[in-house]
Amino acid sequence: MERALSERKAVPYSTAIGGLSQILTRPGWSTTALLTPAYAWLTLAVFLPLGAMLFFSILKAAPFGNRPLQFTLDNYLAFIRRPYLIDVAWTSIEIGLWTTGLCALIGLPAAVALARATRGRSKQVLFLLIVLPFWTNGLVRIFSWTMVLREGGVLDYALHLVAPSAPSLSLLYSFPAIIIGLVHAYLPYMVLTCYLSASAIEDAYVEAARSLGARTPVIFWKIILPLSLPGLISGSILIFVPVIGSFMEPRILGGRVGVTMGTVIEDQFVQAFNWPLGAALSFTMLAVVLIIFAASSRILSAGTGARSERL
What domain range is 266 assigned to? Predict the structure, then answer.
């Protein structure tokens, strides 16, 4: 009798546990459980700071001490009231375009070579050399370039070994020095994203093109480049967005030439303590970046669709 009663009581408990496990193993619940930590961290690390910066951008002065809160939108009119900021913003965009373009020109062929021409240990060694900049401190990397690019540095010494009568060469505190430092820092992003796209290209496409008499430049332009565009676009986004806001490379390698939006915003926070203006400039640059990519994504998607139809 007691055994029968215990079995009766056990049936609802096991049924409840089974129903709970079925609910937790549903695709919706499992996906939510996996995404919740990532989105919680994203909220804490990204959206809360952005919300705080948005709040600062509409203040008349930073709320330090006993200052009362006064709201205004005058900070967003800085580009109108200070026309020199337009030139500074264009310099930042120009640096971003040069860096992204050079990373694409260097990174895409390197990624295709890694995906299609290397095997085994050689590929591992090349990958190690590509990700090596990620393992070095940013300041150490930038100051190392000052030793290379300055007058009497490594580059100048190598030039005088080849041509002893040549004048001294110094690229430090110039626009090319900024581009060199940024390309060195962000090139791995382009190589890795393009490698993922290039490694997914089937060999049958290339073999079919070769059997029809297509040469290597034609194969690259008609097959490899269109199929590698997703990685190229992803790498361009990953590079262009942080580059236009960078301030260490322009300040250290550019000197007086390296006045960009990143250095201006840094000065507003660190030296002038004008946090509202710095926050407003940050959101203005963010809006410019979003507009540029909204326009370029349509053009690139249209081009990708047209080329995929040709294939």
Answer: 75-310
Does 181 share its domain with 289? yes
* pTM (predicted TM-score): 0.80
User: Residue 206 is which amino acid?
Assistant: V
Which residue in the block uniquely carries the two structure tokens 């009581």?
9
Closest CA to 181 of 246, 226, 260, 268: 246
Could you write out the DSSP letters of every residue in 122-147? HHHHHHHHHHGGGGS-HHHHHHHHHH
The residue length of the chain stands at 311
118: left (phi over 0), alpha (psi -120 to 50) or beta: beta
Q: Are residues 197 and 287 in the same domain?
A: yes
> For residue range 137-196, what is the model confidence (pLDDT) as tens digits?
888 889 999 999 998 888 888 888 888 888 888 899 999 999 999 999 999 999 999 998
229, part of any domain:
yes
**Does residue 56 lie in a domain region?**
no
- Cα–Cα dist 141/111, whole Å: 23
Q: How far apart are CA 47 and CA 44, in angstroms?
A: 6
Q: Is residue 49 included in any domain, yes or no?
A: no
Calpha distance 239→101 (Å, rounded): 10
pLDDT of the residue at 16: 47
User: Three-state DSSP class for 19?
Assistant: helix
Tell me, yes or no, whether 231 and 95 share the same domain: yes
Phi and psi for 184 in degrees, rounded to 5? -60, -35
Tokens of 96: 């971003």
Q: Which amino acid is at 283?
A: F
Indicate if 36 and 122 belong to the same structural domain.
no
Q: How far apart are CA 14 and CA 91, in angstroms?
A: 68
Sign of the Cα torsion 271, 272, 275, 280 reads: negative
Write out the two tokens for 157: 């010494």
